[in-house]
Amino acid sequence: MKLPFTKALATLRIMESGSLLMMSCLWLGLAAGCSTLRPDFETPSVNVTSFMPLPSQSFTPKFEIGMRVVNPNSTRLSLRGMSYKIFLNDHEVVEGAANELPVVPAYGEAEFRVIATVSIIEGMRFVQDMLKNANGQVDYRLQAKLDVGAMIPSIRIEKTGSYSP
């Protein structure tokens, strides 16, 4: 009679130690994940450095866009992916995504090139608005989303400005 009780007690102890191990791993994972979400994290900046047309065999024009990411933080950014949109006078003219991106060093910057397509319809609307608008002022907005990994939320960046061609 004592033997089944001893087996049950041993099984319970194994289950308790397994649960304890699982809880310890969960807490360790949460602590590691939360340590990367530092309150002093500064949003990196994204700048367009060049914009060049590419030869295209389709009706949709393509452009090579040079970009620079500046990291003002003490930890490097391992970029897994990026999506971006460029608006001109509130028309989404350019859109693209990239997944082969460099590591941005701590307190450093990285430059890279991405391929983007132009929305023909929105591009035509933009040109039509420019022909109607006598002052020629162009407002631009760059929206970018940087994916730096599973434990850190995506970094969203928006940059606005205007210029007169």
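Second entry:
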Amino acid sequence: MKISLREIEASETEFNFQVSPEEMDLFSPEVEFLEVVETRVRVTGSEKQHLLDTSIETKAQCKCSRCLEPVSLPLRADFKLILKSCGPFAKAPETPSEEEDLVLVADSDTSFDITERVRGAIILSLPLKPLCREDCRGLCPHCGANLNLKTCQCGEQKLDPRWSKLKELM
């Protein structure tokens, strides 16, 4: 997803991209991406400095962290980025700047690739513990039954004999 720096107008320019997850190297054994990644970049600014306001949308499927049922997740992410010109004869630095949201580009550069930043934003938008619903009861730790679908019969009856003396104290 390259933004052509030559196409940016003085007022506002918008770029729209639709890229498949495979093209963005979005592979994970836990997550399957169901739709293309839609990215909208609105560029505003002046000749020497541009603000990139980026919004991303896609859909993914993973397993609930409690009951292991499939969960479909709409993913949305936003980030802003400032592109600043570093002069006509200067080269853009090889190492990233201290400020993550500020990127120095040489005047000789004709485009700026945002693919890695979009990929990172998608990965960061994935929930750490996806749930099929807020009140998911999960799996029974004894028999493995899905407690959302049925009540298991094993209950709390199985007590480790090593803890029986503590049970007597209560």
